[in-house]
Amino acid sequence: MEKIFYTSIQNNPIIAAIHDIDNLDSAINTDCEIIFLLTGNIFNLRDVVEKIKLKDKEVYIHVDLLEGFSRDLIALKYIHENIRPSGIITTKLNLVKIAKEMDLFTIQRLFILDSQALETGIKSIHMAKPNAVEILPGIMPKIIKKVYNETNIPVIAGGLIQDKEDVIESLKAGAIGISSSCKDIWNL
User: Fold this and answer.
1) Which domain holds residue 163?
2) Closest C-alpha to 99, from 64, 65, 134, 68
């Protein structure tokens, strides 16, 4: 599971982030090997994940953003056993820990708004030990470098990445990947 993620991101560090199911076909028809699914509900999630997998893409579901699922052990267990994503994304420390116990690949999403959020985020990474961390906004090279240096957990930059220069700067700062909902970024 970890090996698949790291191989895919090494092949193509751009991750297509889907906020709207209407953009799914565009995303799965790019060279992106990883899809971050930031939408879905109890009725369509299985079909969406299967459609992504049929295109040989890895799919990581942001469980906090799903409709019709609670954010607890039972929902996570159901998603793991019945939907079978490549892994999950969450901001919730307790879900990271539960997912890790289930042997699910976990990406902890952090919103770094100020120095206190940065400090709290680094502490939560140490506590949860996710497989990777997604930092938003992703246009902060110094913060990307600091989080990686202090946690030794791979960092994905996401949010406000608008052009090739943003991608290059984030990767130079140490991000292993770039998640973006911008179709122009998907095709770099």
Assistant:
1) 2-186
2) 64
DSSP result, 98-164: HHHHTT-EEEEEEE--SHHHHHHHHHHHHHH--SEEEEES---HHHHHHHHHHH---EEEESS--SH
Tell me the C-alpha distance between 176 and 23, whole Å. Answer: 24
Alpha-carbon distance of 184 to 17, in angstroms, equals: 12
Per-residue model confidence as pLDDT tens for the chain (188 residues)? 688 999 999 999 999 999 999 999 999 999 999 999 999 999 999 999 999 999 999 999 999 999 999 999 999 999 999 999 999 999 999 999 999 999 999 999 999 999 999 999 999 999 999 999 999 999 999 999 999 999 999 999 999 999 999 999 999 999 999 999 999 999 98
SS3 79: helix
CATH classification of the domain holding 79: 3.20.20.70
If one counts the domains in the chain, the total is 1
